[in-house]
Amino acid sequence: MAKGYWVSVYPTIEDPERLDVYNELAGLAVAAAGGRVLAGIGSRVDAHEAGIAERVVLIEFDSFEQAVAARASAAYQEALAELPDGFERDFRIIEGLD
């Protein structure tokens, strides 16, 4: 069964500290859903072409379906409600190749 991944890129973050509540709640939701953070806050980024050297988060789940269900979970919805104004995020759920 192919794994599922959350890929989040934050092109603009005006005040990173304002994401602390979201980060804490999202981390708990991801862990409860069986997700594993592979890259995230504090990871180095070497951006090319249209890429922006800003925060990138990569989370792995055992399946694509598990990744989709984690995004829809009540725990993650609670985290999303805490996202502050003043940032942009490009969030995708993708299926792995194997």
Describe the protein's architecture and organization.
With 98 residues, this protein is α+β, with helices and mostly antiparallel strands. 30% of the residues lie in helices and 30% in strands. The protein has a single domain, classed as Alpha-Beta Plaits (2-Layer Sandwich). The chain is built from three helices and four strands. Strands 2-3-1-4 form a four-stranded antiparallel beta sheet, with helices on one face. It is globular. Pfam families: DUF1330. Residues 3-97 form the DUF1330 domain. InterPro entries: Dimeric_a/b-barrel (IPR011008), DUF1330 (IPR010753).
- Order of the strands making up the biggest sheet: 2-3-1-4
User: How many strand units?
Assistant: 4
CATH architecture descriptor? 2-Layer Sandwich
Shape: globular
CATH topology call: Alpha-Beta Plaits
Task: Give me the Rg, rounded.
Answer: 13 Å
Uncertain regions: pLDDT < 50 for 5+ in a row?
none
Which secondary-structure class do the elements indicate?
A: alpha+beta
Q: Largest beta sheet, briefly?
A: 4 strands, antiparallel
The number of domains is: 1
CATH class: Alpha Beta
Number of discrete helical segments: 3
Please bin the fraction of helical residues: 25-40%
Mean pLDDT: 91
Task: Please provide the ordered H/E string of secondary-structure elements.
Answer: EHEEHHE
